[in-house]
Amino acid sequence: MYFVIDALTRDNQERNFGFQVNEQEVELGLDILSGFVEKGDKLVEVLLVFDNNVTKLPISIFDGHSFAKPIKQLQGQWQEILRSTPEWQMKPVYSSDLLQRAQTARQSKIDCLKVSREQMQKLLDRASQQSNNGLLLNHYQTLINAYTRMLASYEAR
After folding, report:
1. Measured between alpha carbons, how far is 136 from 128 in angstroms, rounded to an integer?
2. Counting CB atoms within 10 angstroms of each CB, which of 59, 135, 137, 153 has the fewest?
3. What is the model's pTM?
4. Helix crossing, 134-156 with 96-130: angle to 10°?
5. Where are the domains of the chain?
6. What Cα–Cα distance (Å) separates residue 123 from each residue in 10, 113, 131, 136, 139?
7. Arithmetic mean of pLDDT, 82-92
């Protein structure tokens, strides 16, 4: 999971950067961004890249307050709901059609990741020949690395 951020510092200097957190630490990433706001920086755009999807997060949610406590409370609530669900409702239902569709979707995602990684590599190659913009080249390389990690994760399943 990767956050891509455009921000303005307190002295109106533009900053473009990104960072990665694992799937279990989403609230950590959100808290990092909220901490920037708390210190007086202004978020211009925040993108969340996960499982080959890019989601633009609303800037208004970053108000300087922590996300960890409300998310933990929500987690406690859904865990309580799961504990109180009758056991007969939680038994898995397996279907060969369902398994086939899941395998097809997995392979499709792997193929898409491979194509995306190849296209990003071509962009990086072209950009490195035409530009000395280290930030752009670093951004492309970071995305290639993310696609490679996601691909390895899906191929290992």
Report:
1. 9
2. 135
3. 0.49
4. 160
5. 1-72, 95-157
6. 33, 15, 11, 10, 11
7. 68
